[in-house]
Amino acid sequence: MTTTEPARFLGEAGSSGRVAPGMPAGLVLLAENPLTDHTALRRIAGVLREGSWWSRADLGTVLERVAAAPGAR
Q: Computed from CA positions of residues 24, 16, 10, 36, in that sequence, does the dihedral angle turn out positive or negative?
């Protein structure tokens, strides 16, 4: 849903904004369609970042670790 237009707005249309070989990977996969329910933006199924897949469980583990770190609010 949000690939080409944000890249164009940010002036990065040639270097990002597409899902294609050779392009930088940075995708957030939602569990449901945010066009029919805007609260779906809070239900992240996983993240693809620089070729690595982070499932919802992986993200939860990282968030717990950050919350438990010294100096965390």
A: negative
Q: Within the chain, which residues score under 50 in pLDDT?
A: none
Residue 11: in which H helix or E strand, if any?
none
- Would you call 5 helix, strand, or coil by DSSP? helix
Q: Which of 47, 18, 43, 48 is nearest to 33 (CA)?
A: 43
- Residues 38-49 as b/e (b if ≥16 CB within 10 A, e otherwise) read eeeeeeeebbee
Question: According to the model, what pLDDT value does residue 24 have?
Answer: 74
Q: Distance (Å, rounded) from C-alpha 54 to C-alpha 8?
A: 27
pTM of the model: 0.63
Per DSSP, the residues of 18-71 read --STTSPPEEEEESS-TTT-GGGGG-EEEEEETTEEEEHHHHHHHHHHHHHSTT
